[in-house]
Amino acid sequence: MPLSARQFAVQEVLRRQDRALPHLSGGQAPSISSVYGASTFSDVVMQAKLPKSVYNKLQDTIRRGQPLDKSIADVVAHAVKEWAIEKHTTHFCHWFQPMTGLTAEKHDSFLAFGEHGEAMERFSGSQLIQGEPDASSFPSGGMRTTFEARGYTAWDPSSPIFIMDGPNGRTMCVPSVFISYHGEALDKKTPLLRSMRALNDAALPVLRLFGNTTAARVVPTVGPEQEYFLIDRAFQALRPDLLSCGRTLVGARPPKGQQLEDHYFGSIKSRVQAFMQEAEFELYKLGIPVKTRHNEVAPAQFECAPIFEEANVAADHNQIVMEVMRQVARRHEFALLLHEKPFAGINGSGKHNNWSMMDSDGRNLLEPGRSPRENLQFLVFLTATLQAVHRRAGVLRAAIATSGNDHRLGANEAPPAIISAYLGAQLTRILDAIENNVEDAEETQERLLKLGIANLPDVEQDYTDRNRTSPFAFTGNKFEFRAVGSSAAIAHPMTVLNAAVAESLVDVRGRIQRATESGMPIEQAALHVVRELARETKAIRFEGNNYSDEWVAEAERRGLLNLKRTPEALEQLIRPEAIEMFTSTGVLSAEEVKARYHIDLERYLKDLDIEVETLVDLARAHIIPAALQHQTRVAQAIDAVQRVKGQAPHTQMEILDACTGEIGRLGERLEALEKLVRDVSGLDEKARAPRYAYDVAPAMEAVRESCDRLEVLVQDSLWPLPKYQEMLSVS
Ligand code: ADP
Ligand code: MG
Questions:
Q1: Ligand 1: which of 283, 308, 309, 353 to mutate, most ligand atoms within 8 Å of CB?
Q2: Cα(407)–Cα(604) distance, rounded to whole angstroms?
Q3: What are residue 107's DSSP bridge partners?
Q4: Among candidates 223, 571, 563, 242, which has minimal Cα distance to 409?
Q5: Does residue 468 have its Cβ closer than 6 Å to ligand 1?
Q6: Fewer CB within 10 Å, N- or C-terminus of the chain?
Q7: Number of alpha helices (DSSP H) and beta strands (DSSP E) in the chain
Q8: Which of 218, 354, 475 for mutating ligand 1's site (highest number of atoms within 8 Å of CB)?
Q9: Do 348 and 356 touch, CB atoms closer than 8 A?
């Protein structure tokens, strides 16, 4: 008998070798520092290639956030071109993040013609600064009508220019924002940059209140920990669901899933390590500070974490990390799965966004200090962040809402859909003490000592015992927003967090100022405000197990939102108070917010439409035919026995009945699913979305259940789809 496609795939996989590269293996790998940033227009290159005055002006933009001086554009462009050509680069593109959550690029060559028609390379200042992609097919959420669909891309000098290797040539990428001719943000980067400005503008005055006169800027810092799965490409090719939806829509649980918990931090298999090492090498060249690699909890699941950077650079870099890992995985015959829940019953993937604020003197504002005053400042920034999470929990929830993340949030291994914050025992004790400490005549300094604020540096030691169940956890000197999905572009959730904290800091500054104006010294005023905030944010603080049912009930008593699915979460984005937050901070206009709401909602519906179609196809074209084949074989076997023995054998009849019954049930469930989708197809998006979440999704689950039952009934060699066990045991 010829091999089935699935059996052939297994054979292929068994023959795989580690992909060892001559320039990396056998002790040939160069030191990281010698390749780091080699493919970027780095500070070193700028200093070497730019006249001093131009270099200084450019630095004003890059480091100090000043607007770009257009008069230097031609000089910079020339230097960039010289550098790119030295690096054998033939093309350039403006590289940006449209609202699809992916990145976009349109390549142009440096080709131009000289006076006598001779071919030459050219790259002008205006080409560096501005591009005009034919962008009418990017989603605009209704902000642009088609006749004025032209938007333009503008260079974002705060993110380094980089060169991407292609198989047969190199392309220079100019990180850019994408805006309409009326100045509306058509991308994810512009709002992020605006939110960083808002945070800076709100945080600096608070620092000044504490007597800081040296800091020139405050920036949010982000370190996104990227989780992902790797499976063999031969298996992916036989799974229409993985190809179209990024996740398996059917598949019975394997006998060995993650029960043994033997994968986490286990030794990394060499074929996987070969992938990681090549990917990291590529990322180092691009100046992306990937630092940590390890196995994750689920089989075939891994993590890659960078050293944190300023939020906008971190956002660009995370997009590049995902893209480079995807490309390198392919070279190793792996498929990279970034979906939040590729396999039911197996841990999903997230992207923990570690977030803090840093001033231009390099001080982390969420790092406890050495003196009581420093620690009061720390507590002000800490509680301001708590206030932001408390007031804007709904918008934060909306910012991470996707069909993929719906499978993860609230499942019993991921943060729940309820947004709460974890502080740890010591800080909780301190906030409680501050809260309960009635204003008395005691000297502030003395009181601070009593409250334990003077010796906060011990905080970190207290954090060895982490609460891994919290969606928003303080981890010693930063918050970790864990509910972000693994496939997400981090720009949007980070935009919302920055905006919320900026809004909160404006309020906090006002309160402290009012207190000092009424004659309180700064310490007392700050303590007073921290006390108010500790009291006001109590509902959002939760130290217990976020996975427990008790918490769901408790959160409801506390009046916290529990938005389980994307449609209801997205509604939070367009509530008046959310729009107020975006507009008051100058991060998004009301129209820009609504555009994002429409795009996200539409995306959700499209995701589910594709999933439904794929599932129906899987069931009808793959699973039912296999089950019928099996059924025929069993029936033939029964016939044969009957001919000899004169009666139908009991066990065989049971097998046949089970199979026949399940095929029938699957048929009914498929019809029910298709009818549901037809019934809601006439509704507008807003009405259709909840029907998808609460009717269509369960109907899909019912179809899946029948498929998965058939998987264990049908003779293994007849089953067309690679099974979980095969896909998850990469080697
Ligand atoms: P942990 O084990 O506490 O999660 P790590 O030191 O491994 O901590 O850091 C996890 C991630 O958090 C890394 O990407 C790291 O760069 C990032 N990180 C550390 N400090 C900060 C900070 N101040 N702001 C943002 N991210 C940070
Ligand atoms: Mg962590």
A1: 308
A2: 13
A3: 93
A4: 563
A5: no
A6: N
A7: 27, 16
A8: 354
A9: no
What does the alpha-carbon distance between residue 368 and residue 408 come to, in Å, rounded to a whole number? 33
Residue 438 has what pLDDT? 53
Q: What is the mean pLDDT, run by run of 10 residues, along the chain of 731 residues?
A: 91 93 93 97 96 94 81 94 97 94 89 96 93 74 60 91 95 94 91 97 97 96 98 97 98 76 73 96 98 90 97 97 97 97 94 97 92 89 98 97 93 80 88 74 58 60 64 93 96 98 98 94 92 96 90 94 96 98 97 95 97 98 98 95 89 94 98 97 96 97 98 96 90 62
Q: How far apart, in whole angstroms, are the C-alpha atoms of residue 550 and residue 672?
A: 35
Q: What kind and span of H or E run contains 449?
A: helix 444-451
Select from 319, 232, 225, 358 the least CA-distant residue to 731: 232
Please return the burial class of 716, using the count of CB atoms within 10 Å of its CB with bins 0-12, 13-18 and 19+: exposed
Question: Are 161 and 286 within 8 A, CB to CB?
Answer: no
How far apart CA 296 and CA 347 sit, in angstroms, is 9
Residue for token digits 């899933």? 257
Do β-strands 301-306 and 218-232 pair in parallel, antiparallel, or remain unpaired?
A: antiparallel
Q: Name, in order, each residue with C-beta under 8 angstroms of 305's C-beta and a sequence gap of 6 or more.
A: 223, 224, 225, 226, 290, 291, 292, 293
Q: Is the CB of 353 under 6 A from ligand 1?
A: no
Q: How far is the CA of 501 from the centre of ligand 2 (A)?
A: 21
Characterise 27 by phi-psi region: left (phi > 0), alpha (psi -120 to 50), beta (else). left
pLDDT in tens, 462-481: 554 567 889 999 998 999 99
Say if CB 398 and CB 570 are below 8 A apart. yes
- Residue 629 has a pLDDT of 97
Distance 298 CA to ligand 2 centre (A): 17
Distance CA 525, CA 440 (A): 14
* Closest approach atom of ligand 1 to CA 366: 23
3-state helix, strand, coil in the chain (%, to 5): 55, 15, 35
Tell me, in angstroms, the distance from the centre of ligand 1 to residue 354's CA: 6
Model confidence pLDDT, tens digit, residues 235-245: 999 999 999 99
Residue of 171, 195, 164, 176 lying closest to 135 (CA atoms): 176
The Cα 24–Cα 42 span in angstroms is 24
Q: Is 475 in the pocket of ligand 1 (CB under 6 A)?
A: yes
Ligand 1 lined by 567 (C-beta under 6 Å): no
Tokens of 317: 């870099």
Ligand nearest to the Cα of 474, by number: 1
Centre of ligand 2 to C-alpha 485, Å, is 14
151-155 vs 130-131, strand pairing mode: antiparallel
Ligand 1 atom 3: residue of nearest CA: 475
The encoded tokens of residue 371 equal 């003196």
Contact 289 CB / ligand 1 (< 6 Å): no
User: What is the rounded CA–CA span in Å between residue 202 and residue 502?
Assistant: 5
Are 459 and 471 contacting, i.e. CB atoms less than 8 angstroms apart? no
Q: Is the CB of 100 under 6 A from ligand 1?
A: no
User: Cα–Cα distance between 273 and 270 in angstroms, integer?
Assistant: 5
CA angle centred on 196, ends 574 and 287, rounded to 5° = 120
Sign of the torsion formed by the C-alpha atoms of 393, 394, 396 and 402: positive
Query: For residue 292, which atom of ligand 1 is closest to its CA?
Result: 7
Q: Are 422 and 429 in contact (CB under 8 A)?
A: no
**Beta pairing, strands 89-96 & 290-295:** unpaired
CA 662/CA 702 separation, integer angstroms: 12
Cβ atoms of 392 and 582 closer than 8 Å: no
